[in-house]
Structures are given as C-alpha cells and as structure tokens.
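Pinned message: reference record for Protein HEAT INTOLERANT 4-like
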Amino acid sequence: MRKGAKRKASQREEGKSTVENHKEVTKKAAPRAKRVKPAKPETEPEFVEEKRNLEDLWRQTFPVGTEWDQLDTLYQYKWNFSNLENAFEEGGKLYGQKAYLFGCTEPQLVPFRGENKVICIPVVVAVVSPFPPSDKIGINSVQREAEEIIPMKQMKMDWVPYIPLEDRDSRVDRLKSQIYILSCTQRRAALKHLKIDRVKKYEYCLPYFYQPFKEDELEQSTEVQIIFPAEPKPVFCEFDWELDELEEFTDKLIEEEELSESQKDAFKDFIKEKVREAKKANREAREARRKALEEMSEETKAAFENMRFYKFYPVQTPDSPDISNVKVNSWKSLFYCFSVLTLTL
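Predicted structure (tokens):
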C-alpha cells in the first residue's frame, strides 16, 4: 500500500472515532428531563373544638330506672347540658357546693326534623347536700304488690366522685371532689345470666330520699294496692280503707264482672289482710322517723333542712329534639322525695 493511502485511511478512522466519541459524550452530558409534580393545593387547617371541662358529666351519671334496651337510644342525639355545666361555674347555682347527681329519663312525643317521635329525654337531678342524700333505692311498679326499699348496693349502685376532664391525669385520692354521681357497675353483658325479675328491678328503680321532719306519703296513705290472684285473670285495684266500704266495693267488682261471686269471701279476706299490713307498716314508719329524729345531731338536722334539689333538662340546639313543651315539673315520677325545695333549670 502506498504511504499516502495509508495515512488517509488512518485519518478517516480517527475522524470516525472522534465523531462517535463526541456523540457518546453528548449523550452522557444531556440531562434527564424530570417530571414536574403538580403543586398540592393548600388545605385549610382543621378546626377541632376544645372539649369543655364538664362536657361528659351528664353521660357519666347513671340514668336510673331506664330500660336497658333504651340506653343506646339515649345517646343517639346530641344533647347539650351546658346549663348543668354552667351551674358549677362561678356565679352558678351549684358553684362551690357539694352536689350528688343522678340521671333519669322521660319518654315524650316530640317533634324532630319534620316528624313526631317518642324519645327518651335525659334528665339530670342535682342534690345539694354535705353528705350522700340516700343509700337506698325504691322499687315500684303496677305489677308489684308493694313498694320495696332496699340498699343501693344490692343493685350495684353507689355514689362515686366525678373527675372533670382537666383533672383526669391526676391521682384521684388527691382530688377534693365536690361532684358525686350515681354509678352502676352492673355489666349489660351479664344481664342474660340474671333472672327476669332481677333485670326488671332495674327498670322500676327510683332513688329514695328520706325527709325526717314530715310524714311521708307512705305514712299518710290509706290506700292499698290490690293484686288478687283470681281466675281466669287477676284483679287489679286500689282500696282506700277510709273512703271505701268493703262490701259495697266488692259488689261493684262483681257487677263489673271483674270478680266472680264464688270468690267474694276470699277477696274480702285478702283485702282485710292487706289493710292490716299497710296500717302496721305506717305505724312502724312513724316510729322509725321519731326515733331517727331523737338520735339525730343538730348538724345533720340542719343539713336535711337545707337540702336542695335541682332538675336539669337539655338545652335546646338545632341538633336535638324540641322539648320546650314537654318539661315536667312533677317529681313523683323521678324519685321518692318528700318536703324538699325543687327547682327546674
């Protein structure tokens, strides 16, 4: 090969290598295009309403006398008891006072969102007292022959201190609680293992408060509730030994076909026995009250005289039923209580 031809071939190879190297460098040097992520829209900060210090006070208070299967429906509405909370704030009716609270319910037909519904309205009663106002529960219903007064603890109920939200990280024994609530430790899951009569007792419970300075309704009453085990159905009636004449009373029941002629004598004997039992109970109640007064200290007497009861209904809000026309001022349906000052708030 000629020298000139060899030199030209060498130059062509060098030129080709230079071009390829240039392409390779250019290819490596070219930056990769990055995907541009769309900017996230700015979101407004979420507003979380701060819980009030006594916000769950009404929920913590056991609704005595309420049917077990109604408890869940009690909390399906956003009831507001800010009036109860405010009563414990400075300037409120209960500020600085020791109070014992229990709950109950009042079934009422009320309007809510365009329709009328029977709703269990929660009610809270506050008893201002330096000591527990009672350790008894009254059990009564139309099906029971007599009212029964038993210790609260038999129904697994007791007064326990309420701990406000801001104090729940503190040791309970170091807190000086001024608010006590009626609590029940009966577990709903265990109800299926109880006898029906025992379960029903919870539905017929009413707090019992004793006023020693005046005769109560049981002492003054001259009526007896009668449940006579007749056939084919029992006879339910009330007999007043001062106003009713037994023979005439019995004949009227036979005339109304509530009682058969063949059961007349047995029914009259049954009435007489119930009247004797009621009169004996009245005498024993008066004697017990007299003895209690004799043994009572002046401090305790003053506490009974100054005991006050306050009844709280929920405050009206757009999220709760309108109960403005169904508030009840009667206390008979709430508890056995005699000769006390009561205020509805």
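Pinned by admin. Summary line: Residues 214-295 form one domain.
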